[in-house]
Amino acid sequence: MTLLDNIKKNTKVVADSGDFGSIKEFTPQDSTTNPSLILAAAQLDSYSKLVQDAVDYGLKHDGKDQLEKTMDKLCVNFGTEILKII
């Protein structure tokens, strides 16, 4: 039994990451993330489909709303993928 397994017996393990690989590796019971972690993860090639989906979504909106809608969609995309893991 690993130290992490022992910790899981007495506490709730939460991932604070935008990296799905890390979340899968440590099998947390919950997860959280923040804009800086999503920004870092979004720059990785492995998440380019999530980024492109958000950009495509944002482009469907008026100019002044494009950036906000794109960022909202990007966060939703990452959150959805994280929920599939935990």
Automatic annotation (TrEMBL):
Keywords: Schiff base
A GO molecular function held by the record: transaldolase activity
Keyword Nucleotidyltransferase: no
InterPro entries: Aldolase_TIM, TAL/FSA, Transaldolase_AS
BP-aspect Gene Ontology terms: carbohydrate metabolic process; pentose-phosphate shunt, non-oxidative branch
PROSITE patterns, per the entry: TRANSALDOLASE_1
Entries under PANTHER family matching the protein: TRANSALDOLASE
Listed name of the protein: Transaldolase
Organism of derivation: Acrasis kona
